Amino acid sequence: MNTRQLELEVMRYDPEKDEAPYFQTYTVPCPEEWVILDALNYIRDELDTTLAFRWSCHMMVCGSCGMMVNGEPSLTCKTFIRDLPDKVRIEPLENFPIERDLIVVFDDVIQKLQKVQPYIIRKDDPPEDREFTQTPAKLMKFKQLTMCINCMCCYAACPQYGLDNKFIGPAALALAHRYNLDNRDQGKSERLDILADYDGVWECSFVGACSEVCPKNVDPAAALQQMKVDGAVEYWKQKLGMTGEKS
Amino acid sequence: MSRRPYIRPMSKTTWYMRNGRYKVYVLRELTSFLVAFYSFHLICVLAILATGSAEKWDSYVAAQQCTGWIVFHSVALLYFLFYQTFPWFKLAPKAMPVQVGDKKLPDSYIIIGHYVAWVIISAFIFWLAGVFS
């Protein structure tokens, strides 16, 4: 097994002791097959038990281990040592307050995810004798958007959110678009009030960084541009008294 | 144990120096100044045309022959092409995805469609301007 000495500069912050974060360097013997998360676990198990970071599945499903790896928002369970130089800098995700070490506070985005009403809204009663139908073609319109695991790498990459965190942001808006595109949903016009508001899609200036860093290829930037078109069309439909709800 | 989340400040003036991706974005946004200046230039051209004076028009056309203006038009053209036209065509499939049945139309079809439309519209404008006659 090919092992390499990796120098990891890890950002540390203890709210009870430190005024500001600082970097601590660890040297970790890493097999090439390891990912950054393995190296962090090695530090916690063998070198420094006080290092705090989130992780759960180690297989790109839970979305817990998002961090900045050499300045790039990344899932550390997906970032292989073999693709990195000998010196790697690990920081908590940008644009979020640091709770402790590599753990950030997500409360703001959790509220935003709730705000966009990410569930099927019906204006009529659901059918009693059968479920809502959805063909593969209708599912395909939004399937990619359902792949989001809320790792928040897109928020860490988004300068608009970093400059003004009132912006609803990529993942929450992409999630709203997922429901707008769902043929079973009738809540598009209700969401429009939130999505087309000052803090909604028009705050996005299409930097495109969210899609470039997304570990699940969700492409929130594309979703936001489509929402701008949809928002404009829906606005005029409402102005002209054509609500145009889906069945 | 008390909570005291640390907020890292983001510079309002130098944030785009953080990585190459942001720098490219800011360069793209800066084209707006060139667009504004070029638009102003076109309005001035229209104003000259509106006077109906052939003499003024001829002197304007003569002024455009100088090296400074030729450099300006060349830079503007290249800047628009590389920071506006090409990226915009590349991004078009994202903003306007087309689904046929249960298959997504390949991005290349939409991109090529834009280029074809661009060539046809440009040729029509050239034809209107009498370039082909």
In percent, how much strand structure appears in the residues of chain B? under 5%
Q: Tell me the strand percentage band of chain A.
A: 15-25%
CATH homologous superfamily grouping of the largest domain in chain A: Alpha-helical ferredoxin
Kindly report how far apart the N and C termini of chain A lie. 59 Å
Structural class of chain A: alpha+beta
Helical fraction of chain B equals: 55-70%
Main sheet summary of chain B: 2 strands, antiparallel
Query: Helicity of chain A, in percent?
Result: 25-40%
User: How many β-strands of chain A, per DSSP?
Assistant: 7
Biggest interface between chains = A-B, 35 and 27 residues
Class of secondary structure makeup of chain B? mainly alpha
C-alpha-based Rg of chain A, rounded:
21 Å
Shape of chain B: flat
Query: Overall mean pLDDT score of chain A?
Result: 93
How many strand units of chain B? Answer: 2
- The total count of helices of chain A amounts to 9
Q: How would you characterize this protein structure?
A:
The complex is a heterodimer of chains A (about 250) and B (about 130). With about 250 residues, chain A is of the alpha+beta class. Chain A folds into two domains: about 100 residues, Ubiquitin-like (UB roll), CATH 3.10.20; about 130 residues, Orthogonal Bundle (Fumarate Reductase Iron-sulfur Protein, Chain B, domain 2). Helices cover about 30% and strands about 15% of the residues of chain A. Chain A is elongated. The mean pLDDT of chain A is about 95. Chain B has a domain of about 60 residues. Helices cover about 70% and strands about 5% of the residues of chain B. In chain B, strand 1 and strand 2 form a beta hairpin. Chain B starts with 19 loop residues before the first helix and ends in a 5-residue tail after the last helix. The mean pLDDT of chain B is about 90. The interface between A and B is medium-sized, with 35 and 27 residues.
